[in-house]
Write a structure and sequence with these properties.
By secondary structure, the protein is mainly beta. The chain is built from 1 helix and 44 strands. 3% of the residues lie in helices and 48% in strands.
């Protein structure tokens, strides 16, 4: 018995055998998208495995690649969505001699040699890995490097486009070794400014540092606005005893210190390089800089263990952002630091560690939302990194925000054998218990940052920190150059 086929149209039901035949004919003759013989491609978006986009076309793009450094390896999938096996007759880079190299399912390619007869079973896929290494072009501006991977099947040809921007750089490669008493290597360095020598780094091309870039005693390194300095793994900038460091960034052209892997997903690697190390007797000023993804952002500690040799020089840090560090943001021990209009954020252990010495913090925002045991701000008269040496400490915090994920973000440890003088004046602080060190402070009130996930620590209009700062402390502008007026906000930003 035949089953009736019916559908409703304008309130009328049709029962028709010819209509059934016509419907089946149109379905069988129309090619399914999975049976058209085309390959389909997909790549992860933003590293999220849930964001696959599958299409017959694909462009693989790389973030800016420093010449001679090379890129990370990007991966994409080649899908056979049909119910039949597909053999790819040839896979090759169309550019001939190419800056790109490819690997197909774990097999590395050879220059100018295509992959032959690569089979993909029905409803299956293979992976292609792509990397780019760019030779220097001897030019200041970034340049475009393109190519394509061609896939030749029995039904036609398809291409995956490749795009990268190359950037020439000045390379600083360590040529000296420091060894310990056992003869083991401690670290490598290169002197970039010798004794009584003044060297200036400019913005025309970035600097890439392998090892420590060292400023020798009485030497001077000047870093001009807009300069970018990229550090390889275990590298850093070292201002040796009695040297001079001047980082002269501006609001519109800050100086950048970061790791040399520029791909965006490396932003979550918080230990790409060592950091900036400043010793005793150094004349140092850091203005309008961003320091990110180091083990310790700025370390102001003496080279020698003999604390008697400590000099009164003050390291001045202004309008600077120090973020995303594996251990600490700023570590000061036995020396002297002044910080104004600075942000220290997202640090794996502490944000600010002060142990002995003299410190003045004005309009500093400390925001640490990473999981950790230590308080974001720690002040003590015991120098833990110097055999627990005891030394007097004086630290003034004025109009600062100290907030984060922990229940208490301010830690104060005092040994009886040394003086500890600490004041938090008109600050917004997260602390479980009140303290005599807190004067006219807001305690445990959410500062209401604009966007914590995007590291935007500006204040929302209803923040309790607005207008609650102490006026007339010699800081007329905020980190962005906005006037503070008679009612300054607490923290680095004026709403």
């Amino acid at each position: 018995m035949m089953t009736h086929f019916f559908r409703r149209f304008s309130g009328i039901y049709f029962y028709s055998l010819p209509l059934i035949i016509f419907f089946c004919w149109t379905v069988s003759c129309k090619k399914s998208t999975s049976e058209d013989g085309l390959l389909r491609f997909s790549i992860l978006n933003d590293g999220d495995s849930t964001k696959y986009v599958i299409d017959t076309k694909l462009t693989v793009s790389f973030d800016t690649v420093l010449t001679s450094v090379g890129s990370v390896t990007r991966r994409f999938a080649v899908h056979n969505t049909s119910n039949q096996e597909i053999t790819i007759k040839s896979i090759f880079l169309t550019g001939g001699y190419s800056y790109y190299s490819i690997n197909v399912n774990g097999v590395s390619g050879k220059p100018n040699t295509p992959f032959k007869d690569v089979t993909i079973s029905k409803k299956d896929s293979i992976f292609v890995f792509v990397k780019v290494n760019i030779d220097p072009h001897n030019q200041n501006n970034p340049f475009l490097i393109t190519d394509a991977i061609k896939f030749v099947t029995g039904t036609g040809e398809q291409e995956v486009k490749l795009i990268a921007y190359g950037q020439d750089a000045r390379y600083i490669i360590a040529d000296r070794i420091i060894k310990n008493e056992d003869g083991n290597e401690v670290f490598r360095y290169k002197v970039v400014a010798g004794e009584h020598e003044t060297v200036t780094w400019t913005k025309e091309r970035p600097y890439v540092v392998y090892g420590w870039a060292a400023i020798d005693s009485t030497g001077t390194l000047i870093i001009e606005p807009g300069t970018k300095v990229y550090f390889h793994n275990k590298s850093g900038l070292w201002a040796y005893r009695y040297s001079n460091l001047k980082v002269n960034g501006t609001i519109n052209e800050p100086v950048l210190f970061r790791g040399d892997r520029l791909e965006s997903w490396f932003d979550k690697d918080y230990a790409q390089w060592n950091g900036v190390w400043i010793n005793e007797g150094v004349e140092a000023s850091i203005h309008n800089a961003t320091i990110t993804n180091a083990s310790i952002g700025i370390q102001v500690t003496p080279l020698l263990d003999d604390v008697v040799t400590i000099t009164p020089n003050i390291v001045k840090i202004e309008n600077t952002i120090i973020k995303n560090t594996k251990e600490g943001g700023v570590w000061g021990s036995l020396l002297n630091i002044e910080m104004t209009n600075c942000v220290i954020a997202n640090n794996g252990e502490y944000s600010l560690l002060l142990e002995g010495g003299q410190y003045t913090m004005k309009h500093v925002t400390i925001a640490n939302y990473l999981e950790r045991k230590a308080a974001a701000c720690y002040v003590s008269n015991v120098a833990s990194g110097y055999d627990n040496a005891l030394m007097d400490i004086k630290a003034d915090f004025i109009n600062c925000i100290i907030y984060g994920k922990n229940e208490t973000e301010v830690g104060i440890v005092k040994a009886k054998e040394a003086e500890l003088e600490v004041i938090f004046q008109n600050c917004l602080i997260k602390a479980k218990e009140n303290s005599s060190y807190f004067i006219d402070c807001l305690r445990n009130e959410d500062p209401m940052f604009k966007n914590i996930e995007k590291h935007d620590f500006m204040l929302l209009p209803n923040s309790p920190a607005i207008g609650k700062g102490k006026p007339n402390i010699g800081v007329p502008l905020d980190i962005l150059g906005n006037p503070r007026g008679d009612k300054p906000d607490i923290g680095a930003y004026q709403n």
